[in-house]
Amino acid sequence: MKKKIALVTGGFTGESVISLKSAAVVEKTIDRARYDVYKILIYPGDWHFICSSGEKIPVDLNDFSISIGDEKIKFDGVFNILHGSPGEDGKLAGYFDMLGIPYTTCDQLTSAITMNKGYTKAIVHDIPELHVAKSIQLFENSPLNGSKIQSELQLPLFIKPNNGGSSIGMSKVKTWEELPEALEKAFAEDKQVLVEEFVSGREFSIGIFKGKGNITVLPATEIVSSKEFFDYEAKYVPGVCEEITPGRMTEEEVERVGRIVTKVYEKLNCKGAVRIDYFLQHGTGKFYFIEINTVPGQTETSLISQQVRAIGMEVKEFYTQLIEEMFA
């Protein structure tokens, strides 16, 4: 008998647009011989499923079910492709935990921690061979921030919302005059902001997932952007950046990166597929951790999809492994 899978998408943030694109790819790629898939759209105060007839069916939040005609449909598991809040920050995970429904992504605690860039770095910083840029975490847009940053950090700087995604609200600051506007922009997206020193290096993004009980490190993608950094436009507008999969790394670098990211996955108690962004510093080759994404994009051109295909695996099989792992 086929398992009933809820494909959750939508969201409460600007990333909902990307979430819908990811869900469309998962919906058409997932193995329909094994799973009955129901796309559940989650918006503030509006959780629903749309029937083939176009009828909007509300979700019963008491047990996360839907009723189509006389049939009440309960789900065996959830394929979570909701970027940002509440799918990536632990809120949905906690809800599904209380209902006893398994899901494809990290648990509530890991999701909440990894959504916070500063807290994540504090946990992973002592992993052997891993480095983090010097940074300050700000909790309010105070007039005192400027002098604190100037006394503790050196230009250039990256200013980013601590809990955001898709590089929304992020800036690169080259002069102190640019700092106030960059802080304003970041605080408009989040109540916490991370200010960190710029690391000059080659940028990569690498997928790691657990399937059939084993952790698999996918080939890294090298990001060669025509922009100052891998911002929202570079991520989602075709032609703005070049993505090379597998990225150009030596055999030693491939092995070292694999060791480091596996330790990150294990130390943060990750589940399903995650994507880790990192720099290899110019001159030294040192691995600098940027951030982890626990609900990585699944669009046709997303990095994870490229990396899965690079190891000769069909994306459909990849999705099957993620789904089956949540039942293991």
From TrEMBL:
<dbReference type="GO" id="GO:0005524">
    <property type="term" value="F:ATP binding"/>
</dbReference>
<comment type="similarity">
    <text>Belongs to the D-alanine--D-alanine ligase family.</text>
</comment>
<dbReference type="GO" id="GO:0009252">
    <property type="term" value="P:peptidoglycan biosynthetic process"/>
</dbReference>
<feature type="binding site">
    <location>
        <position position="277"/>
    </location>
    <ligand>
        <name>Mg(2+) 1</name>
    </ligand>
</feature>
<dbReference type="GO" id="GO:0071555">
    <property type="term" value="P:cell wall organization"/>
</dbReference>
<keyword id="KW-0464">Manganese</keyword>
<feature type="active site">
    <location>
        <position position="15"/>
    </location>
</feature>
<dbReference type="InterPro" id="IPR011127">
    <property type="entry name" value="Dala_Dala_lig_N"/>
</dbReference>
<feature type="domain" description="ATP-grasp">
    <location>
        <begin position="117"/>
        <end position="324"/>
    </location>
</feature>
<feature type="binding site">
    <location>
        <position position="291"/>
    </location>
    <ligand>
        <name>Mg(2+) 1</name>
    </ligand>
</feature>
<protein>
    <recommendedName>
        <fullName>D-alanine--D-alanine ligase</fullName>
        <ecNumber>6.3.2.4</ecNumber>
    </recommendedName>
</protein>
<keyword id="KW-0547">Nucleotide-binding</keyword>
<feature type="binding site">
    <location>
        <position position="291"/>
    </location>
    <ligand>
        <name>Mg(2+) 2</name>
    </ligand>
</feature>
<dbReference type="GO" id="GO:0008716">
    <property type="term" value="F:D-alanine-D-alanine ligase activity"/>
</dbReference>
<keyword id="KW-0067">ATP-binding</keyword>
<feature type="binding site">
    <location>
        <position position="293"/>
    </location>
    <ligand>
        <name>Mg(2+) 2</name>
    </ligand>
</feature>
<keyword id="KW-0479">Metal-binding</keyword>
<keyword id="KW-0133">Cell shape</keyword>
<keyword id="KW-0573">Peptidoglycan synthesis</keyword>
<dbReference type="Pfam" id="PF01820">
    <property type="entry name" value="Dala_Dala_lig_N"/>
</dbReference>
<dbReference type="GO" id="GO:0005737">
    <property type="term" value="C:cytoplasm"/>
</dbReference>
<dbReference type="InterPro" id="IPR013815">
    <property type="entry name" value="ATP_grasp_subdomain_1"/>
</dbReference>
<dbReference type="InterPro" id="IPR005905">
    <property type="entry name" value="D_ala_D_ala"/>
</dbReference>
<keyword id="KW-0436">Ligase</keyword>
<dbReference type="InterPro" id="IPR011095">
    <property type="entry name" value="Dala_Dala_lig_C"/>
</dbReference>
<keyword id="KW-0963">Cytoplasm</keyword>
<comment type="function">
    <text>Cell wall formation.</text>
</comment>
<dbReference type="GO" id="GO:0008360">
    <property type="term" value="P:regulation of cell shape"/>
</dbReference>
<keyword id="KW-0961">Cell wall biogenesis/degradation</keyword>
<keyword id="KW-0460">Magnesium</keyword>
<comment type="pathway">
    <text>Cell wall biogenesis; peptidoglycan biosynthesis.</text>
</comment>
<dbReference type="Pfam" id="PF07478">
    <property type="entry name" value="Dala_Dala_lig_C"/>
</dbReference>
<feature type="active site">
    <location>
        <position position="302"/>
    </location>
</feature>
<dbReference type="InterPro" id="IPR011761">
    <property type="entry name" value="ATP-grasp"/>
</dbReference>
<feature type="active site">
    <location>
        <position position="166"/>
    </location>
</feature>
<dbReference type="GO" id="GO:0046872">
    <property type="term" value="F:metal ion binding"/>
</dbReference>
<dbReference type="InterPro" id="IPR016185">
    <property type="entry name" value="PreATP-grasp_dom_sf"/>
</dbReference>
<dbReference type="InterPro" id="IPR000291">
    <property type="entry name" value="D-Ala_lig_Van_CS"/>
</dbReference>
